[in-house]
Amino acid sequence: MDITTAIANERRELAAMLDSLEPAQWDAPTLCAGWRVREVAAHMSMGFRYSLPRMVLELIKARGDINRMTDRRARQDAATLSTADLVSAIRDNARHPWKPPVGGITAALGHDVIHGLDITVALGIDRRVPEDRVRVLLEHITPRTLKFFGADLDGVELRADDLDWSFGTGTPLTGAAQDLLLVAYGRKLPPGHLHGTARDRYIAA
Asked: What domain of life is recorded for the organism (predicted)?
């Protein structure tokens, strides 16, 4: 799969999805704790809107804490940019070469896919990420990925029920591959997405 093309397609599809939302949905919570749809969209487009020197300056302001920096910028940008601005920033930068500090181009695809799911799953929108994109990200899940995103899979085996994939050992936790991908990225999901005796650990309160 051409990951660059997959990223471009994912961004265009997410921009179309965001463009279809009602005003109230932009203020609805997502799977990203404390962020509404508009904060997630602002975060997704930050790498396109900020130059490298600006990013460095913002990081210095946050005393080197990248999580503090991204949270502050997402909230401030969401408060000042219109929803049309946020949609355009994602759509118009479909082929922007931005990548996260670590992980390369695959991490860029993961950034878009996961944050898109943060929105659609929380809103109850039945969007299926194309299987080839999901498979690429599943193949890159490692213990280091779990640690980075704070996912606790101790004694749990992730087992997809819509394609041939599993990860880990222990009590099976089953669900759609893209939902299990969210679990591996440290998310908790609404009820009904996961199955198995371990599911309560991964369901949002």
From this structure: Bacteria
Which residue's entry shows tokens 């005796």?
197
Per residue in 115-144, pLDDT (tens digit) is 999 999 999 999 999 999 999 999 999 999
Task: Tell me which residue has tokens 């992730």.
Answer: 158
User: Which element (helix H / strand E) includes 1?
Assistant: none
Dihedral over alpha carbons 82, 190, 175, 195 (to 10 degrees): 180
Strands 156-160 and 171-175: parallel
- Alpha-carbon dihedral angle through residues 199, 17, 100, 118, given to the nearest 10 degrees: -20
CA gap 46, 114 in Å, rounded: 16
What is the per-residue DSSP string for 140-200? T--HHHHHHHT---TTEEEEESSSS-EESSSEEEEE-HHHHHHHHTT--B-TTSEESTTGG
Phi, psi of 167 (to 5 degrees): -155, 135
Q: What does the pLDDT look like over 39-93, one tens digit per residue?
A: 999 999 999 998 888 878 878 887 877 788 889 999 999 999 999 999 999 999 9
> Helical H runs in 50-159?
52-61, 66-80, 83-91, 104-123, 131-139, 143-149
Amino acid in position 137 = L
Tell me the C-alpha distance between 9 and 166, whole Å: 26
